[in-house]
Structures
1.
Amino acid sequence: MKKKVLVTGGTGYIGSHTVVELMNAGFTPIIVDNLSNSNISVLDGIKKITGIEPVFENIDCKDYIALDRFFEKYQGIEAIINFAASKAVGESVEKPLLYYRNNLMSLVNLLELMPKHGIDNIVFSSSCTVYGQPDVLPVTEQSPIKPATSPYGSTKQMSETIIADTVYAYSNLKAILLRYFNPIGAHPSGEIGELPNGIPNNLLPYVTQTACGLREKLRIFGDDYNTEDGSCIRDFINVVDLAKAHVVAVKRMLENKSEKSVEIFNLGTGRGVSVFELVSAFEKATGVKVPFEVAPRRDGDIEKVWADTSYANEVLGWKAQETLEDTLRSAWNWEQKLMSRDGNS
Ligand code: UFG
């Protein structure tokens, strides 16, 4: 029988790609999402790719009673991947309590219900934001945790602590914390991808929207950083590669291969790419020009960060495979699909 995995936030950007990879690997993902930052049409995209109708429940993970009922209904779930969280750094500064409520309450509810329903394994979406501006690059999992620069970042740090404390208290529980660097791109089919709400905060959605004329100009925030070309440096990781790491993590726990009850892995490519480099790589990969201007630095931006991925490569046995060029083309392909879909609707 196929093993059941609960995917909270499974209609979101990384969640939906992970659902596809779980299906490809022979699992039965069960999606729980309240659609607060995603669209129900994502389910059609998943079905088009996999031929499988995803199981979906519209539930808010902050609702303990609804979640409890959910676990009564779907017995035999073996692992949880918890994506359900708010993720806009700027919004979190304006609405801190929304972030503490959404991100922490959902997690606490899940952790409380796991022992009650006999579920031992949880994979958590964490972020390289926990490292702040690292003193040494690339960043290993042992790099110090720096004070968070936003409530969003605080929720990721707090969530990691909450999970570690809970796993310590309940000997059956195991967790894998995945610290993502900068996920970009879309499924190569163009059936699922990122659906930014309103004006995108993140770089690549802004680039693709500018390339197709939805936005006039990309603003590059700062060209006076202490980097070769003056713009910030990030480790951009293909979303399908990232999704596959979740499948590896789930298998690792289910096959009792974890070496510790809480394991932490950096998920990146190990390569730092500057904002200017990303824009020219996009133009080269797609042949489309991206008008841009240099704007003042954005508050709270980290100057440079990229991952040391050797621990994930060796211990998890996972490595990012996709090239930056293919990843950028996948994002462009997705943007064009969205444009034609919106144009037709
Ligand atoms: N950038 C621009 N113009 C834009 C958007 C972004 O120049 O219109 C620049 C930013 O200043 C930054 C880089 O592109 O230098 C990347 O910015 P993103 O907003 O795409 O990504 P961040 O690295 O700021 O944030 C991401 C995730 C967060 C996560 C963080 C961890 O969005 O959820 O990585 O460092 F916490």
2.
Amino acid sequence: MSTPKKRILSGIQPSGSLTIGNYLGALKQWVARQEVYDCFYCIVDLHAITVPQDPTELREKTREVAAIFIAAGLDPQKAAIFVQSHVTAHAELGWILTCLAPLGWLYRMTQFKDKSAKQAQEESIGAGLLNYPTLMAADILLYQSSAVPVGDDQRQHLEYTRDLAQRFNHLYGDTFTIPEAMIPEIGARIMGLDTPLAKMSKSEASEAHAVFMLDAPEVIRKKMMRAVTDSGRDILFSDDPEKAGVNNLLTIYQAFSGKTREAVEADFANARGYGDLKKAVAEITVESLRPMQEEYHKLIHEPGYLDGILRDGAAQARAVADKTLATVKHNIGFLAS
Ligand code: AQP
């Protein structure tokens, strides 16, 4: 008898255009995992509204992200691809877990500190921003996921999810699978091109900050050539904060090429300076994104096809999520409807 596949879940916010950070840290490994795991991948629109979003743009971005998922290689036959708000169990379990979540745990979250610091006034910080990790815990726990493929920035939220699940299981009996973080060895934290000590983020305003998956080749080249480096010449991997820019470029090159660190450094042993490095990173990025961009530009003109995938994905997701939610409701003492 064959053992059932382990389940994984992950999501990306439609809060802007996807960056190569989102691709290398998350999407690329999602594609690789779909052969081996029972996969649920969602576009987390409920998370996106934790900071202000324009309604028209949010709708467009949600479809754009769906098209990028498919263009990058996610296969709706192998993975359930859906929009978070289409499965109401996420919001319901999110509320139930909110009632269990200690405020102290939430105030400690780095993402909350970073994102709330960017809001001009305290009154404009939504409570949703503070509660973000609780909704993320609900996303993961609804599917009884054993692992969550994410970038390094989500490590703390994963720890929080595990703590909250253990708290629930302790209070109400074994209900949730305790999930593990699944962080890629290479590309788990791509840094901003203009701020190599901060992670690349899709909602950062500066044009020099991120390479987007849909950027045209000339735009990618321009951004890479402007990337912040240092006054040295050594093209080697390094943990020295001074060398963070060069390290980031080498990491991008390594993640796209699939080469070892030694092979990457060997590729640049005879380079005449950082200009050669930047050119090579730009070219490998352009060539790696090219097939995905071509596929994307076909798919985005087929909204009916994309919406069909999202509808089917939501139905598959509901079948699993509603079952967990029913158990949760029973265990905490809600009267059955
Ligand atoms: N720079 C990054 N390097 C590696 N992985 C990254 N991820 C995000 N940025 C990097 C991973 O992408 C997945 C989806 O992230 P998200 O959309 O939920 O939000 P985020 O982590 O907050 O990403 P952004 O791009 O910074 O979005 P905004 O600016 O809207 O907040 C996650 O697995 C994440 O680890």
3.
Amino acid sequence: MKNFKDKVVYQIYPKSFKDTNHDGIGDLNGVTEKLDYLKKLGADMLWLTPFFISPQNDNGYDVENYYEIDPRYGTLEDLKRLIHEAKKRDIGLMFDMVFNHTSTHHEWFKKAMAGDPYYKDFYFFKKGKDHQPPTNWESKFGGNAWEYVEAFDEYYLHLFDVTQADLNWENPNVRKEMAKIVNYWLELGVTGFRFDVINLISKESFEDDFTGVGKRFYTDCKKVNDYLRELNEHSFGRCQHTMTVGEMSATTIENCLRYSKQENHELDMTFNFHHLKVDYLNKEKWTLMPFDFKELKQLFNDWQIGMQEGGGWNALFWCCHDQPRIVSRFGNDQEYHRESAKMLATSIHMMRGTPYIYQGEELGMTNAYFTDLKQYRDVESINHFHILKKQGLSDDEIYAILQSKSRDNARTPMQWDHTLNAGFSDQTPWIEVNSNYTKINAEEALKDPNSIFYHYTKLIQLRKQYSVIQEGEYIPLLEDSDQVFAYLRRLGSKMLLVLNNFYPQEAAIQLEDIADYELLLSNYPEQPLKQELILRPYESCVYYRE
Ligand code: GLC
Ligand code: CA
């Protein structure tokens, strides 16, 4: 059995983490500079989002060369130093492998466009039907998913941006190239891999979708399992101490079980996003709706139990570079900033799975609340500004939506201290710093023993110390409560009791069998555990007994 159940991953968006060469863009040396901070937090593994050569149409998720570092982030020497310095601190590196598509600037695609049949077969080039694209599938970034190429009178598939061409995994030569890339980075000392939208790599059939946007023809198709097993066998599976996670788009428990069961030799764990759609009105992201707490609870319980019963493993997370800040989203970033940030952290860190912390989450960084389109950088947000405008929404309505949903909320520079640009850079940053940086920053957090930062360090320490957190069975509790998300973890006679009030109102709860519990962690001064308990606003407590 591989040992990753006591580990915690920290996600870094290098562009916004720390700039060391005075160009307003974060870089690899910036990550190296902050390793002691990350060690202090307790991170075991650092997931870096892509920093490979890329035209940056999708901030690096459009890779031009999987072997070369984009000079704006540094050099191979810088990377080797980072790997070395991290290893000295017992921290591993997890690279982001964007294998569903390449940039259209990639040399394979360029050769394909030049008519080389070997490389044309690396992608999906298909004939249209009656001057229409081969299928009616929609791109995830808007519009049809096929782009016409006049020279061939054919279309190529792009499930994302038109500059992100889907790779044809049916072709064994593509699969060989993918394994080669993973092996290259393994040899350089990389021990973790995150696979971007990896459940989309097999396209089962090219048919029009009359009930949806095409997803069912390319999501979680059976061959994904074969491809992952093969990749595992030919690359990371040969090494003992790797950790792998797959990002799964619009997936199901059943499929995530297949991907993450150790005996299947595919991946160690999966990300799913269902719990981050509970504030989408009619499943549409660019809307405003208070989050549906009951649905959130139900999803957590279903995924925890489903994955446990089938022997799979979840990645646990609230935040990433694609999601707004959780304290602004399901917490309260004003009056109960500290309490709610801690409560949200506890509620997922004590579950069964591997927790991921996104940079700044440990400080309670909030949404950006930009008020002008000029402040936005993300292509998806800017596109949607115009789409919503066309739909007739007023500017005020549109800004309210962007302030709550834009990916840029997560991408503002890391707030290190109260000096110029939050200590991120001495030059104008590529994206504006959040104006609350004078209060919310790492320097302040490190000085304050009661800070959100130290709450995260405690959560990480608890995971390492208590086997029940790593291995225990998950049992939902107080399922009917409209305010409290509670559960037990059980391993033999060891029990963990976790209570989280998700609201600024007090919550009265009834508990049974509370004898012998001791308090391990809370975001309030201790109150004795009673059968009839009143949880304070956003209160969260973790109790333990043996
Ligand atoms: C993943 C990434 C996202 C990117 C997309 C296409 O969802 O997290 O940032 O836009 O894949 O590669
Ligand atoms: Ca820089």
4.
Amino acid sequence: MFNLTNKVALITGGGSGIGFAIAQAMITAGAKVVITGRRENALQEAVASLGENASYQVNDVTVLENLETLVEAIESSVGAIDILVNNAGINMKKPAIEVTDEEFQRVIHTNLNAVFALSRTCGKRMMERKKGAIIMISSMAAYYGIDRVPAYSASKHGVEGLVKALSMDFSPQNVRVNAIAPGFIETAMMQTAMNSDPARMNKALDRTPMGYFGKPEDIGMAAVFLASEGAKYITGASLPVDGGNSIGF
Ligand code: NAI
């Protein structure tokens, strides 16, 4: 019931970190996976290690006018997209009063505007076919207040709002929309945010009842579940995969 054989998955930002682990997990579950990103070298290396059921498309999600062409290219070469994982994202950590409007908009554009545009493009096609699963990658920053990440927090709250609103629009046509809210997961993004800030690292760990940070594969397995028939009645949900961080005192 968690098998993804014959499914085609598009994973944005799939060349590294959480996106790469989602690609690995979905391939293990039988899917054909297309990863996207901006750097061809990184994508080539990732596909070489993912194996024959992986391919890539060079694509910057922030160039919204190219997303229709991206989806068309994948559907005509690999097949109809059954699963969209909106994983590509950026973070920016600095005190709110130092964040410029330009910086704020850059984060919102990548983490929210692009997520909406690609979900709309894929969602339209999925609704016509009456099947599909869209997975957003949210964050603990959408669950509770974290200092010095105002744009990132706003973008991830927006993503959680999209999950609910798009579920209302898409799910009557059997297209499910859900989020995974990762806790603190060991990737380059987390290391950048934490390595220079041991106080934040300890705070995050202290409120994580499982007592350790997550691995990208933990998100990969949850994504397989939400994409699979095993989750066929789940839509509009946000699943924390966080070692309990979101409920920690
Ligand atoms: P990462 O920095 O390793 O991966 C982000 C990926 O997105 C990279 O492959 C990057 O090239 C890609 N990307 C960024 N901007 C892009 C653009 N304009 N077009 C195409 N691709 C682009 O970081 P990580 O940790 O794997 O993050 C993946 C997702 O998980 C992000 O949405 C992040 O907000 C989310 N997340 C991560 C957490 C963590 O603890 N690592 C916690 C909560 C959420």
